[in-house]
Amino acid sequence: MATATNVEATAVNTIEWLSAPGTSIVVPVYQRQYRWDIGGCERLLSDVRAVAAGDGAPRHFIGSILSAQDSAQSDLVLIDGQQRLTTLMLLIAALQHAVRDTDPQLGAELDRVLVRSDDSTRTKLRPHDAWAELYESVVLDRRDDTERESRFDDNYAFFRSQVHADEAPAIWRGLQRLEHVSITLGAEANAQQIFESLNSTGEPLRDHELIHNYILMGLTHAQQLDVEERFWLPIERHTGEAIGAFWRHYLVMMTGRELAAGGEHGVYSAFRASFPHVDASHLQADAVLWRHYAEIYAILLDPSREPDDELRRQLDYVNTFGRAAYPLVLSAYSDHQRGLIARSELIETLEWIQALYLRRALVNLPTVRLIARLCRARAAGREHLMRAFARITPSDERVAAVLKYSELPHAAYVLSRIECVDDTSSFDVEHIVPLTPPDGWSGDGERGWTDFTEDEQNSYRALAPTLGNLTLLEQPLAERVFGASFTDKRADAYARSSVSATRQLTETPRWSTSAISQRTVALTQTLLRIWARPERGVIDDDGLTPVLDAVRRRGWPAGWDREFSYVEYRGEHWEVKDVRALFNRIFRRAWTDDRPSAVAYSAAHGGPIYDEKAWKGQWDSLDDTHFLYMGWDSNYMMNAVQGVLEESGIAAEVFVKYSYIGDVM
What we know:
With 665 residues, the chain is α+β, with helices and mostly antiparallel strands.
């Protein structure tokens, strides 16, 4: 058998590998900066705790670590694995600093992982020179700048807040069960080629693939086959290429929280948080529900599967606006299917969805970050849902005003409902005065287009895409009179149409801007009746976003300090522009108004309130004996704001108003 001579790959215990006296690792200058955020740290710590709690001495595989021997020194040059190793070292440093005074023996064991045996002032892992001093000052606890900000400081502070001395033996047990494949390259190996083979040849796992692996990994082979056949494969068949969207929409429905759509495995993280136990004893009941919602999702994707004519029609209508509302539709449809709500309540919800999206499109309001709040409201009952819709659905007055002069969105859909046409596939949206009238076009059979003044022509052009100038017309008739004058269309097409509203145009003697405006006013009343806004004595909310739906951003992106225009806190107007200021003010207010909730949240999450300044960093005093740690990243801060407000029961009364910068970040 032939053997490789330039690549050595060995499965090793990670802690034993790092603890070896000769282990010394350097990060080459071409490596990217350290980028893991607190979310990644949470997953690592969760994995360590899980493997520590497992029976039968389980192991946890953290992947492969690729290195090459430095020809000039004894160091290993780290080619792949920097992010994982650096985060692991920060966790070990936080653990060592927490126990060094109370458990010197454990402290010494941890120190052997962190510090070089030949030089106690140097760490075994050394980033390249641009940030080596920064990293070592954290790991060796020799910081002297408490106001400093870096990923090293943020993630170390997170681990320090979460890992306490009494949990240290369990965390150490979990760390000792980590394994990886150590790949060491010889002098003749092509490091870049091997790095690309490990990282770039295959596609990264997507959220639904991670969910699939997570569900099956802890099961026996026989159990895996059973779950695959009875649950996962049916879910795949029902959702097809939309399986990733299905899991996202399902989790938005279930959690009532918005999820990041791309790039950061937010869906997978939400799934793991929602289903921390997927062993055989828990999986059966959960998987039955997943399959149930996947069956509904198939109907939403293809409403022709729905046997009820009216429900099928309503689902088709909802699909006019895309799939963003699916979490709410899943919830309502499931309740109807299980007999928890009447058919009429499901239809009412679908009508409210259509009114919300159409009216916001008409007045040019965004439709992002809307559905999670409606899912939360629905969970509280129909009256709460009605109020939530009313708050964010533009009023009749706003809609009527813009319909006079604005282009009609989703014209075929709107006209089909106004003019009672079930199937528009054989109809065209007819512009009574064309968008670009030919020279011979006339509205009365007497004056041609070239006879109009420039102001008259501009008036016609402005009103051409509005509601009053539109109708549905059979395609053969539309082709026959394309570009024709109004009087010719009236005789040759409109009079022959099966659409009552189109035939009524034959009663109009001339088509003028006045006629368009009058027809718009008349049709507006019908539109406002069909797409009715729930009336509950509230006005639409100026684009305010509930704090529970606020975006949790990674790191500190450009513009973070001007993300908000203002914040509304229980009717108070706060001139707060960024998440750091919001975090500080919310926790200070919680400390004053509802201290038990602030203490309970902090105790359950390991911060951000502490009774001492336990490590160097950015702190603010709440009183003489309690301190608020201010060194978290923006994602953690927003998560903490949302969490403490939920703990206090007032999250529904707090809103943020995004600035222009915040909307485009």
